[in-house]
């Protein structure tokens, strides 16, 4: 039995992804500090933060809500990554790898919420 959100593979994966996204944005131009860099960092960090919050909730309904918010933030991050690639800030190979990892993360979140929905 998992006793802490830090033990969850879905949280671990999302946390690693947020660090990778943060490191990717270090190379952005200073003019993007309050635009793309800020948005993508916040959406990426929101994924693991909402997973942690879901873990701390008592009811399945509350947990589902935060896992769903986390899923939305993962999609938002993917959008920001694609935008960054589209305007030539990020390399297509890097974005392809990160987007694949986000797809895997979203799949994990879907499995968790599907299981929780069956318990209601």
Could you characterize what this model shows?
The chain is mostly helical and 120 residues long. The chain has 4 helices and no strands. The chain is elongated and about 45 Å long. The two termini are 20 Å apart. The mean pLDDT is 96.
Task: Please describe the structure with a list of short key phrases separated by commas or semicolons.
120 residues; 4 helices; 77% helix
Structural class: mainly alpha
Number of DSSP E strands: 0
CATH class: Mainly Alpha
Provide a count of the helices. 4
Q: Outline, from the CA principal axes? A: elongated
End-to-end CA span: 20 Å
Briefly, what is this?
The chain is an all-alpha fold.
Layout of helices and strands, plus pairs?
Layout: H1 9-25, H2 36-56, H3 60-86, H4 92-118
Helix pairs in contact: 1-2, 1-4, 2-3, 3-4
């Amino acid at each position: 039995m998992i006793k802490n959100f830090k033990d969850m593979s879905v949280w671990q994966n999302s946390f690693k992804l947020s660090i990778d996204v943060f490191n990717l944005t270090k190379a952005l131009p200073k003019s993007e500090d309050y635009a793309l860099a800020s948005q993508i960092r916040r959406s990426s960090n929101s994924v693991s933060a909402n997973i942690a919050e879901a873990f701390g909730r008592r009811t399945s309904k509350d947990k589902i809500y935060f896992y769903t918010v986390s899923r939305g933030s993962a999609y938002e991050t993917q959008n920001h990554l694609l935008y960054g690639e589209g305007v030539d800030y990020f390399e297509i190979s890097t974005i392809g790898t990160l987007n694949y990892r986000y797809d895997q993360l979203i799949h994990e979140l879907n499995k968790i919420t599907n299981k929780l929905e069956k318990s209601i």
